[in-house]
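Summary of Year 1 activities. Much of the first year was spent building the evaluation harness for sequence design. The harness presents a backbone, in tokenized form, and records the residue chosen at every position. We chose the following record to illustrate the format because it has been used consistently in internal testing since the harness was completed.
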């Protein structure tokens, strides 16, 4: 994501080169990989429109003894630093969200503690879950959904304020005593800095028209992506600013450091 973002920000702002940015390229990487992220996620780009996204999912192996989120939390509290949890990279949204989950779990007392294991990608995380190498994970819906649907893993909760329409029977963390807990992934269409307003407006209209197409919405849903509600370029910029601030707060609250 960072490589693509760095390339696009150097291009002529004529609307012919765009980036489908992510919560990694324009959210977590600028916060957790500051030494290798060579761009400003806000200043170096022209926001066009939010495309879609969705929550992360708390996932356990299919043969896990944890049938409910409360079961997992109780065991984490009873046996600190015993369970292992996985994400697809140190410092990514799964890592930040998991750290926040451990420090904000209901019940009071000290933060919950478990050993974090970093893998190369979402596929490797789900393979580790299938083999029982780790006890739970926090993965974006797009990575976790196929495996949960196939019975490879079991979803316990989603990390948004409300339930996902893709898994309406799965509770949201906010329902389980986590207050206003809300961590979601997203995809955003941006161009290089200085994209002319008329080009930005035209691309925004085209994006919103595509997102209103039932066929497009259906394909996004199959990929476990919730199509975004209509958003102007200015609203898209405001969202990016707010998400960056949220990720910085998650790092601070989780006491995370990155080399």
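For this record, the design step produced the sequence shown next.
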């Amino acid at each position: 994501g960072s490589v693509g973002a760095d390339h696009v920000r150097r291009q002529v702002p004529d609307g012919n080169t765009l980036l489908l940015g992510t919560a990694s390229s324009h959210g977590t990487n600028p916060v957790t990989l500051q030494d290798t992220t060579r761009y400003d996620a806000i200043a170096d780009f022209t926001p066009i429109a939010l495309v879609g996204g969705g929550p992360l999912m708390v996932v356990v192996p299919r043969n896990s003894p944890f049938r409910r989120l409360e079961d997992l939390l109780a065991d984490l509290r009873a046996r600190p630093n015993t369970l292992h949890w996985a994400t697809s990279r140190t410092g990514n949204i799964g890592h930040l969200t998991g750290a926040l989950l451990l420090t904000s779990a209901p019940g009071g007392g000290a933060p919950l503690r478990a050993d974090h294991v970093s893998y190369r990608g979402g596929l490797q995380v789900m393979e580790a879950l299938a083999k029982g190498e780790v006890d739970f994970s926090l993965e974006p819906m797009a990575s976790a959904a196929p495996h949960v649907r196939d019975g490879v893993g079991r979803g316990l909760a989603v990390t948004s304020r409300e339930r996902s329409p893709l898994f309406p029977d799965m509770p949201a963390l906010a329902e389980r005593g986590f207050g206003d807990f809300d961590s979601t992934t997203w995809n955003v269409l941006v161009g290089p800095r200085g994209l002319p307003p008329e080009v930005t407006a035209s691309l925004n209209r085209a994006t919103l028209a595509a997102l209103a197409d039932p066929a497009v919405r259906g394909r996004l849903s199959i990929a476990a992506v919730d199509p975004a509600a209509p958003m102007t370029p200015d609203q898209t910029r405001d969202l990016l600013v707010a998400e960056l601030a949220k990720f910085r707060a998650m790092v601070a609250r989780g006491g995370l450091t990155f080399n």
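Residues 5 and 111 are 36 Å apart (CA to CA). Quantitative recovery figures across the full test set are reported in Table 2.
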